[in-house]
Amino acid sequence: MILAGVVLILLGLVGGWPWITGLGILGGGFFAYFFRNPERDIPRGPGVIVSPADGLVVRVDEVEESEFLHGPARYVAIFMNVFDVHVNRSPVAAVVKEMRHRPGEYKVASRADAASRNEQQALMLENEAGRRILVVQIAGLLARRIIPWVKPGQPLARGERLGLICFGSRVDLYLPGDSQIEVKTGDRVKAGSSIIGRWHEFPPET
């Protein structure tokens, strides 16, 4: 997309078409801004769980997660609009135990039924203590591609980049039922740097 903007700029300059040059600058600038991938200061300390995504917390709840965690879970849903950074990060130091892609629809990602109907990529992570969490990347109305950067068996540091969702979308996080959640609906969070919760009993991680 950025390359397309550069091509339009060159065509406009060579052909003497300022409107094409302007279109290339606007388009290329937007995509360069959208695909930005900034560094983040990752919080340290035992038991810290960081946000997997930039965006707005749209739901905090207690649910039953029967597909991966097989039990009660603390649930946090984070909606990313087109102006948020769309690079997602690992909430904890863990190993990728399982990845599962599910095709689906492209409804507005902030809707409650997007979790069950939209296209998504689920990643189950397990830390050294054997505690599992689930990160689900969900495509939205404009998002038509989820790009994972990890594979099963890969170890991840807390806050390490794990994938990208193109344009407005959402990330759902499922934690063990005894986890402590430190955000509420309406909070804005940043991937890797915002503390979203803590383990109730701290596992051995840094």
Q: Any idea what the CATH superfamily of the largest domain is called?
A: Glucose Permease (Domain IIA)
The unreliable regions are 1-13
Termini separation (Å)?
38 Å
What percentage of amino acids are in beta strands? 35-45%
Report the sheet with the most strands, covering strand number, pairing sense and barrel closure.
Answer: 8 strands, antiparallel
The percentage helix is: 10-25%
Q: How large is the count of helical segments?
A: 3
Name of the top-level CATH class of the largest domain: Mainly Beta
Q: Work out the radius of gyration.
A: 19 Å
Shape: globular
Strand order of the largest sheet: 9-5-6-7-11-3-2-13
**pLDDT averaged residue by residue:** 82
CATH architectural type of the largest domain? Distorted Sandwich
Would you report the number of β strands? 14
Instruction: Give the topology string: H per helix, E per strand.
Output: HHEEEEEHEEEEEEEEE
CATH fold call of the largest domain: Glucose Permease (Domain IIA)
Write structural notes for this entry.
With 206 residues, this protein is α+β, with helices and mostly antiparallel strands. It has two domains: 2-34; 48-198, Glucose Permease (Domain IIA) (Distorted Sandwich). The chain is built from three helices and 14 strands. The protein has helices at 2-15, 18-34, 114-117, and strands spanning 48-50, 55-65, 71-80, 87-89, 94-102, 120-126, 132-139, 146-148, 155-156, 161-165, 169-176, 180-181, 188-189, 195-198. It has an eight-stranded antiparallel beta sheet with strand order 9-5-6-7-11-3-2-13, with no helix packed on it. Strands 1-14-12 form a three-stranded antiparallel beta sheet, with no helix packed on it. The chain has a three-stranded antiparallel beta sheet with strand order 4-10-8, with no helix packed on it. The N and C termini lie far apart (38 Å).
